[in-house]
Every structure is written in structure tokens, then in C-alpha cells.
Amino acid sequence: MSLDRIDIEGTFNFRDIGGSPTSAGESRVGTGKVYRADGLAQLTDKARADIRALGITTVVDLRDIGERSKLPDAVEGLDVNYVELPIFDDHFFPAKRLSVEEMKQAAEATGMDLSDRSLSKIYDLMIEHFGTRLAMAVDVVAQSCEGGVVFHCSAGKDRTGVVAAFVLTLLGVGRHEILEEYSITSRHLAGGFLENITRNFADAGIGGNLAETATAAPPELMAKLLDSIDAKYGENGVEAYLLEHGMDPESPGKLRDQLLAPADRD
């Protein structure tokens, strides 16, 4: 499993999601095709050259418009397909900050109370209200992985973590490995990242208890999310959940065809 971060200047949590064996043990997720990351707003010329060297041709930005407009990805000069795919559909971090009254009106209109932005509430809302966006993200990864793709949000752990967990589940990776891949984020999001996000948290969409919200990736939280989907949708819960929310039925096969390799090689 590729748990080590890739040293891309201006990022803290850029890594390859490949390397894990599948539950059957006969194959593993190949490396060098699908990457996950935190924000790409501070990429340097060297960082862009390193991203180019990785063969990445698609960048999927999972952030809301309020985050993207204040901290736009520094991908100028990169020959990539840049996809804006806000998982929260621009509800969490709109173009302008909402007043308390506007938040109340939005809650009445959407049925979503966005005032509680604790980690557990964020994950519940993501699964309950934004399944269509998650399915779209998986589709884009499936369509782009042959050429190299990186998907990211601000910290690269919550929206990015759920999409990564879903992709790995569709590839047949076991729960233990998925939780390990998710929780390793906490190792990378410390020190410099916390200092950086503290300077920019209002623009990056980080609220509540900053240290926890910005850096914590407790495996029990992801386990609860996956367990809740399995409880509702059955043995192949994630795939059924994504299909119900509009995932292309061909996406799981595309992912497996492009990313799975015999266990003894990438």
C-alpha cells in the first residue's frame, strides 16, 4: 500500500492510492494512475513539473465555489483536463458567506442544517444528500484513470477520503486496508499543514474545532460510514449506493480493468 506522501511542493497530503491487495489476494491496485491530494493552490514550478512527470492528465477539484474562488488550483501551464466537481454542490461553501438568517432559509429550502460542521455531521450529510455528486466523482476517476488522475479537496481527507474509499471498495480492497489508507492522512496533516490552513481556513472551508476538523481522520468514522451503507444496501453496499445515485454501471468494470494488476506486480 502506498501510504507515504509524494513530495509535491505546496502540498501536504499528495499520495498514490494504489498498492493495496484485493480481498481475494490474486490482484492488487496498481500504482502510478490514481492520486489523491489536498489543495493545489500553492503549487510551484517544480511541483507542476513533478505532477507532469507523474503522467497526470486530469485534475478533479472536489471543493465548493467559495473555496475554489479564494484559493484556485495553480495548474496553469499543465496540460490537464481540469474538472470542477464540488461534492457539496456549492452548498457548504457558496460564493459568498451566508448570514445566519440566510443559512436558516437555505436549511428550510434544502432540508439540510449546515450549521453543525463537526466531522461526524459532515460525513452524514455527504452520504445522505450528496450521493449523486459522489457517484459523479467515481465516474470521472473511472473515465480518467488510464491517463493518470488526481482528485482533491482542501485537506484531502474527507471528501477526498470518501471518494478514495469508494474507489478502493469497488476494486475489491478489504476494509482493513481501506481504513488504514484513510487514517494515514492524520500523519501528513500536522505541523506545517495546520499552520497553513490556520492562515487560510476561512477561505478553505475549515470550520469548527480547527485542529480536529482540519487534520483528524479517525478510522472509526470511515468504518461507521461504510457500515451504514452496507447495512442499508447489502453485501455490495457501496456499489449499490453509487448505482442508485446515478453511477455509470460500467464504471466499476473500467476501474478494475485499468487499475487491477496481478498481486506480484503493479
UniProtKB/TrEMBL annotation:
<dbReference type="InterPro" id="IPR000387">
    <property type="entry name" value="Tyr_Pase_dom"/>
</dbReference>
<feature type="region of interest" description="Disordered">
    <location>
        <begin position="245"/>
        <end position="266"/>
    </location>
</feature>
<protein>
    <submittedName>
        <fullName>Protein-tyrosine phosphatase</fullName>
    </submittedName>
</protein>
<dbReference type="InterPro" id="IPR029021">
    <property type="entry name" value="Prot-tyrosine_phosphatase-like"/>
</dbReference>
<dbReference type="InterPro" id="IPR016130">
    <property type="entry name" value="Tyr_Pase_AS"/>
</dbReference>
<comment type="similarity">
    <text>Belongs to the protein-tyrosine phosphatase family.</text>
</comment>
<dbReference type="GO" id="GO:0004721">
    <property type="term" value="F:phosphoprotein phosphatase activity"/>
</dbReference>
<dbReference type="InterPro" id="IPR026893">
    <property type="entry name" value="Tyr/Ser_Pase_IphP-type"/>
</dbReference>
<feature type="domain" description="Tyrosine specific protein phosphatases">
    <location>
        <begin position="128"/>
        <end position="165"/>
    </location>
</feature>
<dbReference type="Pfam" id="PF13350">
    <property type="entry name" value="Y_phosphatase3"/>
</dbReference>
